[in-house]
Amino acid sequence: MKIGPQQIKLIMKELSTGRNALFLLFATVAFMMAFAPIKAFYATEMGGYYTHIVLIPLVSLYLLYLKRTEILANPKYSLTSGLPVLIAAVVLFIGGWMLCTDFDKNNFASLIALSVVIFVNGAFILIYGLQAYRACLFPLLFLIFIIPAPTVIMNGMIHVLQVGSTEFTNLLFMASGVPFVRDGFVFQLPNLSVEVARQCSGIRSAMAIFIVAILAGYLFLKSTWKIIFLAVCAVLIAMLKNGIRILTLSLLSNYVNPQILQSSLHREGGIPFFIVALVLLAPILFFLIRLEKKKVVNRA
């Protein structure tokens, strides 16, 4: 019996469907195993900084869907490469549960989430092979953003953003012409005193802007250094955006209504300023895209 092109196509479709179902099964089991630690972590103070975690797997899945042609071009099961990665992830997961009493909820969630990312990457290698893995490296490594930063690193990130936001706030106050006196993180205005505290570091929006920049760089830029430059600009813009927010709320509270700093605009008004950050980031992205296109034209 001869097998024609149509039959070969149907066979490949069936095989790819089986592989996809197996990979989704592996990934679903991995994320379910991490559900309890991540849920407990969300109840902590630092957990509130990671509301983006639930979206990251969906973005990775969509990016893998965009790469479906390359994934299914020549899929091969790879036990020798994938199995050791899976075993390492399982060992890390079990070790994390055995040592959970030695960690706080943040560090425990970091360890478990890391094991999940390694497990999903190992499952992909096992099911689709190294060739497909190389083609899908970014979508799979993008899952790193579900890993909460260990406590010591997170505290360092918050401090850097706190210092940066304070410096930008200082520059903005100077540009505004408003009389003020600065003492470290505290700004004394005529009618009130404003402190750029840890809670005012803007860590949550800064991480979101950084992730958006990395994703946009991957989708629209080809040069690695341009993606890195965009990511650095995103961090600086996050600090500037935070300075604009602090200046705005301070001036409104000082000259319009003293209750502004206790209002929902202070506690929950981050979205308008996040949009401002994206608006500031967009021209930089467009400039880098245009720079790449110009380089291609010059080569032609």
Provide an overview of this structure.
The chain is mainly α and 300 residues long. The protein has two domains: 5-148, no CATH class; 153-299, no CATH class. The protein is built from 13 helices and three strands; from the N terminus they run αααααααααβββαααα. It has a three-stranded antiparallel beta sheet with strand order 1-2-3, with no helix packed on it. Helix 10 packs parallel to helix 13. It is globular, with a radius of gyration of 24 Å.
Secondary structure: elements and pairs:
Blueprint: H1 5-33, H2 35-42, H3 56-66, H4 68-71, H5 79-98, H6 105-128, H7 130-135, H8 137-141, H9 151-176, E1 181-183, E2 186-188, E3 193-195, H10 203-220, H11 224-255, H12 264-268, H13 270-299
Structural key phrases:
single chain; 2 domains; 3-stranded antiparallel β-sheet; 3 strands; mainly alpha
